Amino acid sequence: LNIPYRDSSVQITAEMKTRIIKKVIGFFPDSPISEYWDTVVTRARSAGINPAFALALWIEESGASSTRIGSFSGWGCNPSVKQTVSQSLDCFIKTTVNSPPSPDFAKWAGNYCGTPAPGFQVCTMNTAGHDNKNFLVNLNSWYNEFGVAKLKGVD
What is the pTM of this model? Predict the structure, then answer.
């Protein structure tokens, strides 16, 4: 798994937006994804972050802020603190922008998941001892919904 998380040039088509919002609402009817989609794309891109990655992470972590998931943080950033969508997006952006610039997605993921120490498999367990083994699988699944590998640079 190697998501180009710092590639802000990734484009998201109107068809992708409609299809993914419909799918998310199908799973998480109370998600505010329609309301915040454009904000997430704009903020991620302006911070130098791949907008499809930002959206996929939001969906993976919380069903795009669905209350059915019960997460305090839409992006899973500082998850023990109750945050608004904007506060959680700010935390995700700050954490990602402040992580060492690297094309190595595993380094970002290990930092974000809180992988406890060298020698642990990335994102299988975090520093709080919580099981994260499905994080990368689920993130990759949602990221693949965008189909950006073949559509990169297409408006």
Answer: 0.84
Count the Cβ atoms, other than its own, within 10 Å of residue 121. Answer: 11
The closest of 10, 5, 24 to 106, measured between CA atoms, is: 5
pLDDT per residue as tens digits for the range 75-123: 777 777 788 899 999 989 998 888 766 667 777 777 777 655 555 555 6
**DSSP, residue by residue, 21-33:** HHHHHHH-TT--H
Q: How far apart are CA 26 and CA 136, in angstroms?
A: 22
Q: How many CB atoms lie within 10 A of CB 146?
A: 23
Phi-psi region of 114 (alpha: psi -120 to 50; beta: other; left: phi over 0): left
Residue type, 17: K
d(CA 152, CA 134): 26
Measured between its terminal Cα atoms, the distance across the chain in Å is 25
3-state secondary structure 101-154: CCCCHHHHHHHHHCCCCCCCCCCCECCCCCECCCHHHHHHHHHHHHCHHHHCCC
